[in-house]
Sequence to fold (438 residues):
Amino acid sequence: MDFDRNQDSQLKEYLLGTLSSESREGIEQGLMTDQELYEYLEAAEEDLIDEYLSGDLTADEKAQFEQNFLVTPERRENLRFARTLHRYVAGAQTTKSIASPSFFSRLLGSERIAFQALAAVIVLLIFAGGIWFYLSRNNTPRTFATLQLSLSLTSSRGDGLTTPRIKLPPGTDDLRLYLLLPSALNPSSRYRAVLVGQGSERKTVEIDLRDGQSLVSVVPANEVPRGEYALQLFSINPDGTEQRVLGNYYFTVD
Amino acid sequence: MKKEWEISQDAFDRLLNWLDADRDNAGRKYEMIRQRLIKILACRGCAEADDLADETINRVTRKLAAITESYTGDPTVYFYGVAQKVYLEYLRRNRPKPGPPPVDTPADEAEYECLDRCLNGLPGDNRRLVLEYYEDVKRAKIDHRRKMAEQLGIAVNALRIRAHRIRVQLQKCVVGCLNQKAVN
Fold:
């Protein structure tokens, strides 16, 4: 069944209990036999709840929603869940690009293979850069290896993504991590980073520099022995509270 | 609502047999019919939609011998007809009263944590879809969803259903997580 905006509005009236009895019976007969219509009505219920929570209902609709729609415990549970989901998404929204599909989501989505290839090239270049830096600056007091990391929104590294890897050459003093921020995040805001090691040990690491859309964190090489790591980022609000940036910066030290 | 008649196993078996000769299919049809009756009765403002749906099914089951002799057609439609009568009787004895306005309670931290855990348990594509789908407000939301649908190569309505299915799955996961927390 193909629904248009008219039918959307009809379903909304049906849910609010304001539809004529004739139209109501038409919808109900459809609901008994048409799975697509049933699912569509459930989606319309969610939209209605979302509109209520966003304050998008008119005063009449709001009253009908509260008096007619919220009659069952199940719907009140749905309202409660929607409220939590709204809060969660609002928190997540500050951490990523919203106006258009982000560069990262495209890379992490349908172009995952391209991303893997790109990530491998970047890591190679950076590793080569790190070696060059090490060799050319051998007489400087400290030597760095560098790694550029992108935020991964996946919950773990085991989902087919290539994790950036680095081998720290002997004598390297520090690992310099360039943390590429999603475009929605302001690099000049305050951040704190937490390095999570294999045994789930957590260590706060300093954010030392800003470089364009990247934060730069320097970790002493002796604190990152071979193993897998995830770096978590927290934005620090003006009032001192912190908000976790969704996702992790994964990397592996070989 | 007081239930006047409980379905015996024999009667229930006859009902399932009427719905479908295949027992599994019949079970699915039974659940589907009950779920839809509840939805319809809730949409009519019945606070006791579950009880009225069960009453509807009981009545059909009680009259099954007569129904199977005379009724031809989709059994689902028959249930709807009986539900209309059950609803009218409900209205006569129990005029729905407006409930209290919902209390705007702050979101529960435990539920938030469970949601975070359940979202992280989703496949990456589904997680991104649901987070992106519920972003933005008003006009921006409509445009945003249209762009998402274009990117995925599907119609906006198909995207809406996809997001709905993930949301249902998430909500079930959150309920399970909260129950687990309550036990521990």
